[in-house]
Amino acid sequence: MPRPYDREQVTKIVADIERYTKDLEELGISRRDDLEDRRNLYALSMLLFSIINRTIDLADEVVITNRLGMPSSYGEIFSLLSRKGFIDHELGEQMAALVFYRNMIAHQYDDLTDDDLYALFERLGTITRFVDRMKEIIREGPPKRRKKR
């Protein structure tokens, strides 16, 4: 039986994601050329980093609360959620791929190109889909597990 969610923590995480996403929208980036303004580039990279980090925090909260296991990496958090039926396989893979970009921003920033950042920016819908799914799980409870035959 899962323990109750820390509603205050979950609410803060979701609020942070929504605030960072709104800040990102306010930058008005609509095409790759907008990143030629270095202020946009640096703001975009920091906001994407923050959004992905808070999304990882949200995923981790769901994993811990539902006692799904002990992930050994950020990417494994999403694999656990997928294996346990909390998200579909495709979304799990897409979220794990975003962790790769998060790690590049954190540890290999000099290797990150404007094209990489814009490609990551274009995947924001994946994060929105994931957050919506986590909110649904938190609100309605974990998915029903199929009994093995």
Architecture, CATH level 2? Up-down Bundle
Using only C-alpha atoms, the radius of gyration works out to: 16 Å
Largest sheet: none
Count up the domains: 1
Structure in words:
The protein has 149 residues and is an all-alpha fold. It has one domain (7-140): Up-down Bundle (Four Helix Bundle (Hemerythrin (Met), subunit A)). It is 68% helix and 0% strand. Helix 2 (38-65) packs across helix 5 (114-121).
What's a quick, concise take on this entry?
The protein has helices spanning 7-26, 38-65, 74-83, 89-107, 114-121, 124-140. The chain is mainly α and 149 residues long.
Question: What is the topology?
Answer:
Layout: H1 7-26, H2 38-65, H3 74-83, H4 89-107, H5 114-121, H6 124-140
Helix pairs in contact: 1-2, 2-3, 2-4, 2-5, 2-6, 3-4
Which descriptors would you attach to this protein?
mainly alpha, 0% strand, 149 residues, 68% helix
